[in-house]
Specification:
Length: 601
Amino acid sequence: MEISKIRNFSIIAHIDHGKSTLADRLLQLTGTISERDMQEQVLDAMDLERERGVTIKASAVRMQYAAQDGETYEMNLIDTPGHVDFSYEVSRALQACEGALLVVDSTQGIEAQTLANLYMALEQDLEIIAVVNKTDLPAARPDEIAQEIEDLIGLDAADVLQVSAKTGANVDRILEAIVRKIPPPKGDPDAPARALIFDSHYDAYKGVIAYVRVVDGTITKADTLRLMASRAEILPVEIGIFNPNMQPIDSLSVGEVGYIATGLKTVRECRVGDTVTVAGHGAQKPLPGYKQAKPMVFAGFYPSDNDDYDDLRDALEKLQLNDASLIYEPETSQALNFGFRVGFLGLFHMEIVQERLEREYDLDILATAPSVEYQVVLHDGEVLNIHSPSDLPDPSTISEIREPWMAIEIFTPEDYIGPIMDLVTKKRGEYVSMDYLDSKRVQLKYKIPLAELIVDFYDRLKSGTKGYASLDYHFDSYRPEKLVKLDVLVNKHPVDALAMIVHEDEAYRKGTRLVSKLKRLIPRQLYEVPIQAAVGKTVISRANVKALRKDVLAKCYGGDVTRKKKLLEKQKKGKKRLKMIGNVEVPQEAFMAVLRLDDDG
């Protein structure tokens, strides 16, 4: 295909604003999918994507469109995730495009995550086509939303397309707008081949499948290719396009989007954002923007049954083949035996991974409370990265502990400013600014520690604003704070999986609350079990789980009182011995109690 007839675009939208439905309509209108094969959310192939109604993995599809000017155009749609945890995938996918459709729900208006992805697109100089969707709904306000888009990013409200992806109304105007407004790809067909990998997945027969956009030159099946970041050299098993299923072809030329079946065994060698070139006489300079996705949230995953340890390791290995941002390493816990410390991009990413492990690999998993990566500066100047509270070195060697802070943006109707400010203040947040988007909607900016954000911040934000507020966040900086390790001792033994790093001012409140929760959750034994919260050597809170009392005097009726005393003494000695060798089982609810410390506060 001639380069002037190619259009590469993606769709930017908040969760549930109709992105996948619009993609379905575009595939139908261009005849890419026959009516017989058509199903809803055709690009969301995973069961989890369909159930939750969110796109988790980026996908690509090629469409042929006969425009009104009589020419046939090749359109490559790169479908991107909308959730903030997957913004790394979005940034790579946008680099493979020249334009983007900004899809906004006509009942809700622009949301925080949409705006974050939109700014990402504007930074990369993409042509934006604004679309107001769901105009068929009774509560639709398409003209108001179009004006909001004009006020926010300066696109003329008259140019905003008003469509209904569900009914198909006006969707054909989007295709014409793509042909007219989005520029064809730039690139040198005669230069050494360079292609950007914007996504990948693992295939049991063909190895890692890299989704690529060719920027310069041509890639053919006969070429030996080199990946510039990992230095791996490959002879492609297959080269092809998405139609939307994989269709092999002989070559991919400048401006085109397709896939390369690499035959590689791990996604680690074929990272998203890497540059593919021809080995030998290939390009010297990689394409800009390659950086590895950095996990922000860490949690311990342990099999409920110790015999499943090998199965859990195999399952994590297989998941990592499809998800390069997932990292894990083995760890042991006195309370939970052998497991893994797993790193995620965010809490939603953790939920998805946990659900996939339980569903696709039939595993029963115990997850510890999530924590974040702290930087510990020792007195000798060495800086350690700590993923788990149990890894914290001896307090006497620590000069300072730094914790990650995030910059957050909240979009909300003005009625809920009070509850939001109250919530952020309780979570140690710092106010930055407040801007009115129109007469009713406000954009609030704060800085907040990531540790306060990951546990229940989003749920409480949604419940405090009746679901109207939307949230976007990105990493700001590491800051030194007065942080201490809060240990939990059950029967005088520390339970490492319950330990957490907290702010010094919060230690007493969190310690007493956790102890009182554990007192209700830990089952009673035949002897009294003390539960303590301690910072260093200082116990700051204690509660006792009362002993179950067996009536040893039941058979002893009448006779001398010394008979009763003898039996009670014998019972006391037995309990003492049992307490020395006894083991207290800590139930799963106890580990989850750490997550819900603020529920009744």
